[in-house]
Amino acid sequence: MNIAVIGAGISGMSAAYELNRAGHRVFVFARAFSPNITSNRAAAFWLPYHIRNDNRGIDWCRKSYEVYLELSKDPSTGISMKQLIKVVANDVTEVDQTWKDFMPPGSYRPIPLTQLLPGYLEGDEAEVPLIETQIFLPWLQQQLVMAGVSFHQQEIIAFDQLDDHDLIVNCTGLGARELCKDEQLIPYRGQVALLAPKENLPIFLDNEKPQYIVPRKDAIIIGGTYEENVFEEVTEPKTIEFLLQKAFMIYPELAMQEYLGSWAGLRPHRNEVRLERENNIIHNYGHGGSGFTLAFGCAADVVKLVSE
Ligand SMILES: Cc1cc2nc3c(=O)[nH]c(=O)nc-3n(C[C@H](O)[C@H](O)[C@H](O)COP(=O)(O)OP(=O)(O)OC[C@H]3O[C@@H](n4cnc5c(N)ncnc54)[C@H](O)[C@@H]3O)c2cc1C
Description:
Blueprint: E1 2-6, H1 10-21, E2 25-30, H2 57-71, E3 79-89, H3 99-102, E4 108-110, E5 120-131, H4 133-146, E6 150-153, E7 167-170, H5 176-179, E8 186-195, E9 203-206, E10 211-215, E11 220-223, E12 227-228, H6 237-250, E13 259-278, E14 281-287, H7 291-307
Parallel strand pairs: 1-2, 1-7, 2-6, 3-9, 7-14
Antiparallel strand pairs: 3-5, 4-5, 8-11, 8-12, 8-13, 9-10, 10-11, 13-14
Flavin-adenine dinucleotide binds at residues 6-12, 29-32, 37-39, 41-45, 155-156, 171-175, 179, 190, 192, 223-224, 265, 267-268, 285, 287-293.
């Protein structure tokens, strides 16, 4: 089939990848490409985040984990398997442990109390994929071009613009608010600070605060905020300073790293991911703070919906 994918973020690119592998002719249309999209603002490590009311997510997460694990064997993908330290602070009253249902069996274990940093009640250690967006997204685009997928910079205002294709896959992230008039879709802004890179750091995550430290090759990402319904894609100096100070309390040696800057991104949040077929349109958007964690699992379901 001739299939038009709208969107060149991780949702669109992973859908294009799986559709191409399934033998379809794929055309990607997008208003913007990497690095000028939300997918480049992600940290981006694999972990289910605020999607635990969507049970379909368990399969999507595990399938994506498998794909990233396989891709991590080739360093040019920018994907590596990293140690994740996930902790719960002393002052948290309600601990959400449902993330464990999403983890591949055997992929996490409790950290003994004696090995926890001060201020933490409990913690787990896991091995998860770290997807360096600045490497992976261009790598994926190059693979797709080599496989015959074509890319077109174009804003789609109405789906009938693409009527000359057999099917349309809508992966527009927050853009679906306008394109589908979907008001359930709202932004959750994330602000992060960047420090000069440092070797041998694990990924650190305190989910409840939220606080994360992500060691990429080009920078350590210090996050983050989770600001409901905020549309301004900008960082605030006070917030960035607050994030840095919190990170220095966790790993004091980070205070020695050069400050590189900051960025903000808008997570396309929806109470449930919209992954369904509506006539000749397959919708695949609303992945919130877990777009990378879900991407290849969702893409596999897009392929199934094509053949229905
Ligand atoms: C600070 C931060 C940290 C994050 N950390 C993580 C993490 O660690 N792990 C994780 O899994 N996720 C993380 N996320 C979430 C992740 O970034 C998103 O879920 C993901 O990027 C969404 O991808 P997408 O492809 O659906 O949307 P986008 O990346 O926004 O891509 C949408 C695409 O659609 C195009 N488009 C939109 N409207 C139109 C239109 N009308 N016509 C044509 N093209 C259109 C855009 O130009 C773009 O190409 C984080 C997000 C932020 C902000």
